[in-house]
Design a protein that fits this description.
mainly alpha, MetI-like fold, 2 domains, 68% helix, 0% strand, MetI-like, transmembrane helix
C-alpha cells in the first residue's frame, strides 16, 4: 500500500501542472485582461470589452495584454500603459510568466490580488467560513437523511412507503436549487409570509457581543435556509444509491446463509449487509464534501447574500483578477487530488479486501 500512496502522490505533480497549463493557455485568448480592467476603472468604468468588437488584441499576462486597438487606451500616454504592463507582469513572455507563477505556487507564494490590495491566502481565509458552513452541514445532513431513508426503502422495497418516498425524492431532485432557495426566502425570510429566519449574512451584526450559547444559536439561525437549499438535490442521489446498494447485497448468497442460520433480520441487515453496502457511501464522503464545498455555492451565496468562495471566484473571473483565479485554482486543484487519494484509502479502511496495488499490477 505504501508504494501505491507514493505513486499517487507523485502523480499529483504532473496532473496539477497540466491543469494549470491548460487554464493558463486558455486565459491567453480571453479578452479584457487586468490591464484593460485597470484602464477602464481609471477612465470611469467604461466597457472593457468594447474595443474587441472590431478585432482587438490577444496578448497578455496570466490572461491578456494590451494593444493599440483597445479603445480604453486611447487618450492615455503609452508610457502609462507600459508602466501598467510592468506592474501586472505583462512585459514578460507568457512562457516565462507561467513558470514564474508555478515556481511561486510551489513555494505557496500566491501573491496579492490585483485590485483588492490583499493577499490571496488572506482573502481565501476570509471567505472560508461561509463555504465550510455550506459544504460541511449540507454534506452531513444529506448523509444523515439519505442513509436511514435508503435502508428503509430497501427493506420495504415495493411497498407504499417506498413508492411515495420515491415520488417525493424525484420531485425534490427536479426542483432547481436556486428556485427552492427563492421559495424559502419568500416563505420564511419575510418575502411575503413569515419572518422566521434572517434574510442575509452568516451572523448578526451584534454577534461579537453575544454569549457563547447565543452565538451558536445565532449561527444556526442564519445558516438554516442556505443549508436546506443546497441540500435539497444532494440527498436524492444518495438515498437512491443507498437503496440500490442494499438491494444488491440483500440478494447475495451470504445473506441467505445468515438468515438460514437463524440470525435476526436486524443482525443480518446491520451486522453483515451494512458494511458492504455502505462501502461506496462512506469512502466517497471526502469527494462528496469537496464537491459541495467548491461547487454549486455561487447561486446560494448570491441569493442569501453570503460572501464565500463561490462569489469570490466569480467576481475574480469577471474582473480578470488572475492572482485570485489561478491561486485558488492551484489550491483547490491540489486539495481535490489529495482528497481523491484519501477516498481510496478510506475504501481500504472500510474493506481491507481491496488492494489497489494488486489491481494496478
Amino acid at each position: 500500500m505504501g508504494a501505491y500512496i507514493v505513486r499517487r502522490l507523485l502523480l499529483i505533480i504532473p496532473t496539477l501542472f497540466g491543469i494549470m497549463l491548460v487554464n493558463f493557455a486558455l486565459a491567453q485568448f480571453v479578452p479584457g485582461g487586468p490591464v484593460e480592467q485597470a484602464i477602464a476603472r481609471i477612465q470611469g468604468g467604461g466597457d472593457v470589452f468594447a474595443g474587441f468588437a472590431s478585432g482587438g488584441n490577444d496578448a497578455g499576462d496570466t490572461g491578456v495584454g494590451t494593444g493599440s486597438e483597445y479603445v480604453g487606451s486611447r487618450g492615455l500616454p503609452p508610457e502609462f500603459i507600459e508602466e501598467l504592463e510592468r506592474e501586472f507582469g505583462f512585459d514578460k513572455p507568457p512562457v516565462e510568466r507561467f513558470f514564474n507563477m508555478m515556481w511561486n505556487y510551489v513555494r505557496f507564494d500566491f501573491g496579492e490580488s490585483y485590485f483588492r490590495s490583499i493577499g490571496v491566502i488572506d482573502l481565501v481565509k476570509e471567505k472560508l467560513p461561509v463555504s465550510i458552513s455550506l459544504g460541511l452541514w449540507s454534506t452531513l445532513i444529506a448523509y444523515l437523511v439519505s442513509i436511514p431513508l435508503g435502508i428503509r426503502k430497501a427493506v420495504r422495497d415495493g411497498s407504499r412507503f417506498d413508492t411515495w418516498t420515491s415520488g417525493a425524492i424525484i420531485a425534490a431532485y427536479a426542483i432547481p436549487g436556486f428556485l427552492f432557495a427563492i421559495l424559502l426566502l419568500v416563505l420564511f425570510a419575510g418575502g411575503s409570509y413569515w419572518q422566521i429566519f434572517p434574510l442575509r449574512g452568516l451572523t448578526s451584526d451584534n454577534w461579537s457581543e453575544l454569549s457563547l450559547g447565543a452565538k451558536i444559536v445565532d449561527y444556526f439561525w442564519h445558516i438554516t435556509l442556505p443549508v436546506v437549499a443546497s441540500t435539497i438535490g444532494a440527498f436524492a442521489t444518495l438515498t437512491l444509491l443507498t437503496k440500490n446498494s442494499f438491494l444488491d447485497e440483500i440478494k447475495k448468497q451470504y445473506v441467505i446463509t445468515a438468515r438460514a442460520k437463524g440470525l435476526s433480520e436486524r443482525k443480518v441487515l446491520y451486522g453483515h449487509v451494512f458494511r458492504n453496502a455502505m462501502l461506496i457511501m462512506i469512502a466517497s464522503f471526502p469527494g462528496v464534501f469537496i464537491g459541495v464545498f467548491f461547487t454549486g455555492s455561487l447561486i446560494i451565496e448570491t441569493i442569501f447574500s453570503l460572501d464565500g468562495l463561490g462569489r469570490l471566484a466569480f467576481e475574480a473571473t469577471v474582473a480578470r483578477d488572475y492572482p485570485i483565479v489561478f491561486g485558488t485554482l492551484f489550491i483547490f486543484g491540489l486539495m481535490g487530488l489529495v482528497v481523491g487519494l484519501v477516498s481510496d484509502l478510506m475504501y481500504v479502511a472500510v474493506d481491507p479486501r481491496i488492494d489497489f496495488e494488486k489491481r494496478e499490477g
